[in-house]
Request: fold
Amino acid sequence: MGDTVLSQFTQEKTEEKKQSGKRLKVGIIGTGWIAEAHVESYLEMDDVDIVAMADLIPGKAEKFAESYGVKNVRFYPSHKEMLDNEELDAVSVCTYNMTHAECTVYALEKGVNVLLEKPMCVTTEEAVEICRAEKKSGKILSIGFQPRLDDNMKMVKQIVSSGELGEIYYIQTGGGRRRGVPNSTFIEKKTAGIGAMGDIGCYSLDMVLNAIGYPKPLTVSGYTSAFFGNNPLYNNPEDAARFDVEDFAAAFVRLEGGIILDFRISWAMHLDTPGDTVILGKKGALRIPSTQCWNGSIGGPMTIYHDLAGNRVETVIPECKNEGKGLFYKKVRSFLDAILEGGAAPVPSDEILYNQIIIDYIVKSAELGRELEVVIPEI
Ligand SMILES: NC(=O)c1ccc[n+]([C@@H]2O[C@H](COP(=O)([O-])OP(=O)(O)OC[C@H]3O[C@@H](n4cnc5c(N)ncnc54)[C@H](O)[C@@H]3O)[C@@H](O)[C@H]2O)c1
Reply:
């Protein structure tokens, strides 16, 4: 896999493979770039058979399977034909954002467990539809946020949950790049729906919202812009001509419990970083050094700022090493284990629903140029 982001998810071959009695029949919907990481993970597992692949582009799934030496696979021209004709235990939905909802809902309606790539989808309406289909199906739906499995991310949640920071009242999060507009299907509304927010913004939202227990968003005042991706000065002319999503976004979000979330994300700007993530509590604060592109980790050791015996002190939290398999393998395995063991989804949709709603309201608030009150339909 050529991308520097995913190449960091090195999967150690030495770890014992998990053994289980049942074999799982898995299908891959969408055989583009991220499907590579899914298939590489499945191929490492003793209890998985990849039996079907679907892609809208004729011949793409066939070539993809061949490149991985995956044999005995049936191929389909879309998710629908695959799900109509196969008896599957699980699918990986690896399509671009705009088809996440239709593929996921259809799979759940067919009684198939779903590992859905991030972001969950594009709009609030789609997210609600997905959650309703999941509830009705009784199947496992997990959303593909592999940074959740990073020990450093777990540490963020542990620190907040320990009460060391006291009651949280303000969070600044986000990050991004000085120049880092992707290409491919990420930059067009017709495939991606959203830009930097769907690519990397959803990760930084998940890091902090997961840490504080995903309180409900109440109001959102959002801003989006595109001054780089569509500009041939900063992007190659062909990509600039088709670029029609945001390359920068910012928002002021009020969350239940009186917590303020101050968010900004960038694919490109005249600045190295829009800042570290900070979580302010009444007893202490946590600084999480930003990363350029959300590869599933932190940009350096975190620091807690607090008072000790009347003195202002700083406690540096050593970086965790993340032992064993890579985060991507762990994400796929935790999904399959939830199916086999009847457990809860590792990254549950009722949490990511709020993540998606915040992103959607940023888009809508930016279009209208004013703050919006969040209305969440019943699931
Ligand atoms: N978790 C991660 O680290 C990570 C990294 C990169 C991308 N992603 C996510 O993965 C998703 C896909 O990204 P990508 O770079 O692989 O995109 P891509 O464009 O390379 O691949 C998507 C594929 O899905 C196919 N497709 C779309 N709708 C389909 C349908 N209904 N049935 C069958 N095939 C369909 C397309 O033809 C295309 O080949 C995006 O949502 C992205 O945000 C996640």
